[in-house]
Amino acid sequence: HKPGQVEEPFSRWNRENPERHIVLLTLTAMNSDEVFGEMQGSVAESGNNEAFVYVHGFNLSFAEAARRTAQIAYDLNFDGLPIMYSWPSQDSPYEYIADSETARHSGRELAQFLDDVVQRSGAERIHLVAHGMGNTALAEALEAYALQFAADDPEPAFEQVIFAAPDMEANIFADTVAETRFLADRMTLYASDNDPALLFARDLFGGLPRAGEAGFGILVTPDIDTIDVTLLDDEENARSGNVAYASALADMLALFWRDTDPSERCGMTQEVSMDGEYWSYDESLCGGSAYLSAMVLLRTQGDDALAFADSRLAEWKDAGDTVAIADWETIRSHVSDLTAQ
User: Fold this and answer.
1) E strand or H helix at 128, and its extent?
2) Which residues pair with 161 in a beta bridge?
3) In angstroms, rounded to a whole number, what is the distance separating the alpha carbons of residues 107 and 188?
């Protein structure tokens, strides 16, 4: 497995192989009490009171969204509770309008589900991550949550809220963020200038800019950290979420772990637009999957991270694996740099 990737068969005519691919093996229907009972058990077993909820985007099946959620959790070595919220996408590139309506109407149900997660999952630190059209559902949910469940609660219900390439009209999105900002410790917008779904949506809606677009009109407001991740984009990221790319996962880990300000995160360069300051993210300034591995190692091993990296490097040198040696030399270098910070 390569961090940031969801390995799958080359085509639909090839069989899935659990030894080579990320595969959804079983699916079990459960009632609400059983589901949240399992969540509480998982949180208690992990010893970590943390969870994240992932809301998938347009043209993604339930199985694909489940695999993506699992990949994010695995690559982050997330020791809390990973949760997927699946709204019923048609799983077809030709059903954009239907998916758009479904995502919007799913917001009310998602608001209730988020309240259930807050009240019944056992997790106390909860992050929200949405990609593409899933941001429509999340935005609607946050507005409903603010009115129904948080009107009299001064404390934020969520820690990090990450909007990856939101497929929403930019001004509507900005208004929603302003109205719901009090619900989270920090809100982050990942924007891209190369996302074909956003370019299609802008043309479909008469040229109105989408909130997830970067470029000259990138959305900048005082309520959210705007990160231009155009340099991360490729065809796979546009379909399944640039937030799941290895370098973006490292940035997300910095948020989940330490609530780190963009000015202190790797790969960030401050930019200025007509509306204010935002950040441009260049993965070449960090190191992709090696940097993510170093971040995970430091989080899981703490003060022993460097010694652990040294031991793994020695093992691969004994085995004579030149590729693994090069990888672990890079990881060790990042661990050393991060430890010194």
Assistant:
1) strand 125-131
2) 128, 187
3) 19
> CA-CA distance, 85 to 55, in Å (whole number)?
5
**pLDDT value, residue 237:** 47
322: which residues sit within 8 A by CB, 6+ positions away?
A: none
* Token reading at 167: 């497929």
d(CA 145, CA 138): 10
Helices (H), 216-287: 235-240, 246-258
Asked if residue 191 lies in contact with residue 228, where contact means CB atoms within 8 angstroms, the answer is yes
Residue 238 has a pLDDT of 46
Tokens at 255, concatenated:
């948020």
Contact 117, 83 (CB under 8 A): yes
193: Cβ contacts below 8 Å, ≥ 6 apart: 213, 214, 215, 228, 230, 233
Cα dihedral 172→176→179→185 (10° resolution) = -140
| Token pair 């969801």: residue | 6
Neighbours of 281 (CB within 10 A): 24
Confidence (pLDDT) at 233: 53
Strand order of the β-sheet with 50-55 is 81-85, 50-55, 125-131, 158-164, 184-191, 225-228, 276-281, 268-273
Residue holding tokens 């990160």?
Answer: 227
Tell how strand 268-273 and strand 184-191 pair up: unpaired
pTM as predicted: 0.90
Low-confidence spans in the chain with pLDDT less than 70: 233-246
